[in-house]
Write a structure and sequence with these properties.
Length: about 350
């Protein structure tokens, strides 16, 4: 059997299901050539998607504006159903007359709470992860749970900074003991020190160390919000990244730039729609995704650490970018959006600017 290369994928798509379908047909018609090809409509209708997530965060500040208590509850479906020899993870197995269905999860996958624990020095922390089986077939999407968790965590950090009447950069730095974490945040402030804001514009900051053990990444977003329509445009993204010893600087920059642009499209536009019967987002023509003229300018600064081991950087920018955009929207118009994507209709529904 020969597989034909298709479009790229940032996680788990329908390729395994197509291969299984072809194998089943070959068994049904021995000695004959079999060609099986999913249409784009088939792919969008039946491939797995990234899991929906819900996060509830609570915190307590002392009289000096320091976080003393932090609690995070996360509800999510699984984040990986790659077959790996398990037939129940294949679409064909689920559609048999006597379907082979996935075994209900007995343990909460670590992908659900990836980056759910803040890197900040907070004396009292609690993280509770809850597995919830959602209505769609789901699996791995770039960043897994870190994308949603960092969006929630870093949006909340900005809300706490506002409550404490502190600058968002300084508020984060006060709660960090890791010098490398501080360095990427400080570098982003240097990168935008000569930037000016016009009417309806705002800056936002997002930070994370991917998995709390891979690359450090801080992102600043500059956005423009048109009050009368609630439309949002990402104007520029700046990132500082520390991936340890940098072996290929151009590759690291490219990876970070691509991650920021992809995450911007996720954050501001992309959404898979479905009804009680099936997925309804089944054509690229109608799917909301960044066009070329919507892509923001991107600038990446690498903090090279020649004496440190190289760190994984493939998914470091996803979560910080989402949080930076949400925080920038708030600074631009005073509206805090807590659910993604940040679409114009959500801004319009909030009456107070």
């Amino acid at each position: 059997m020969k597989a034909v290369p298709g479009s790229g994928c940032y996680g788990h798509n329908g390729a395994d299901d197509v291969a299984a379908d072809a194998a089943l047909l070959a068994r049904a018609y021995p000695g004959r050539h079999v060609r099986l090809q999913w249409s784009r409509d088939d792919e969008h209708a039946w491939e797995p998607y990234g899991s929906a997530m819900l996060m509830q965060l609570d915190a307590r500040l002392d009289s000096e504006g320091r976080i003393t208590h932090w609690q995070n509850n996360i509800w999510s479906d699984t984040h990986s159903t790659r077959p790996g020899g398990k037939p129940e993870s294949l679409l064909a197995a689920r559609l048999l007359a006597q379907p082979a269905l996935p075994t209900p999860a007995t343990e909460v996958s670590s992908a659900i709470y990836r980056n759910g624990e803040p890197l900040y020095a907070i004396p009292n922390q609690r993280l509770d992860a809850h597995y919830v089986q959602g209505p769609l077939r789901v699996s791995a999407l770039r960043g897994l749970g870190a994308f949603g968790n960092v969006f929630a965590l870093e949006s909340f950090m900005d809300e706490l900074a506002l409550q404490a009447k502190q600058d968002p950069w300084e508020f984060r730095l006060r709660h960090l003991t890791d010098e490398r974490a501080k360095a990427v945040i400080q570098r982003t402030r240097e990168m935008i020190k000569n930037e000016k804001l016009g009417p309806g514009e705002g800056f936002g900051l997002g930070f994370a160390q991917y998995k709390n053990q891979a690359a450090y990444c801080a992102v600043v977003a500059k956005v423009h919000v048109a009050e009368e329509m609630g439309t949002i445009r990402a104007l520029h993204l700046w990132a500082a990244i520390d991936a340890g010893e940098t072996i290929n600087p151009d590759g690291l920059k490219n990876q970070t730039e691509g991650g920021m642009i992809q995450a911007s499209s996720w954050t501001l536009k992309e959404e898979v729609l479905f009804n009680e019967q099936h997925v309804t987002s089944r054509q690229w023509e109608t799917y909301p995704i960044f066009r070329f003229d919507e892509v923001p300018a991107v600038t990446v600064s690498i903090i090279d650490r020649p004496t440190k081991k190289p760190l994984g950087a493939g998914e470091a920018a996803q979560g910080p970018t989402a949080a930076a955009l949400a925080n920038a929207v708030f600074q631009a118009c005073g509206k805090r959006i807590r659910s993604l994507p940040i679409r114009p209709e959500k801004l319009v529904q909030i009456k107070e600017f």
